[in-house]
Amino acid sequence: MSRPIAASPAMPVTASAPPGSFAVWGDVAAPGLLTVAGLREGWEQHRAEVVFDCATAGPQHHTFAGPLLREVLAAARPGFDSARRKERSRFLVAVNGGDGHHTVLSWAELDADFGNAPVLLATRMDDVDLDTAGTQLVVPSDRCGARYVSAVTGIWIGSPRLPARLPEPLLPALPVLPVA
Fold first, then answer.
1. Burial 85-115 (b: 16+ CB within 10 A, else e)
2. I need a labelling partner for 47 at 20 to 30 A (CA). Which of 63, 64, 104, 124 fits?
């Protein structure tokens, strides 16, 4: 079950989201705001028992619950043709946290036809609701906790476009990389 992402006329999704909520925007047909309670009520909750290494606090053991990131983002209707795998594989997902931490995932990591990673937007951690703390991005397959993002404030979806050729002034200045 999924709920449409609610756009807020009072606050454009490019501004800072109110506490306890986060914005979903980018190359999507339905940008909007979500809350932890909305994630818990609108989508199927999945559980993940994880162990990851934290550079500052050592090994962390937690149980998270929340919807799959790909299901929540699908409700925003990303700007790709879902029947075209190559098109889907070009999209990126950038996630910002309340402490300034951010990370990037590829749509292909999340997509069932590619990596099928069960990445969560956690609504609960160790059986405690995250309504006050904010949702947390959980990447259960990561050994390191660097892509876990606390107090998510925004998620951007899009496809960066590289130029077809390098700009002429840059080309002669690039060194030839040595072969290992």
1. eeebbebbbebbbbeebbbebbbbbbbeeee
2. 104
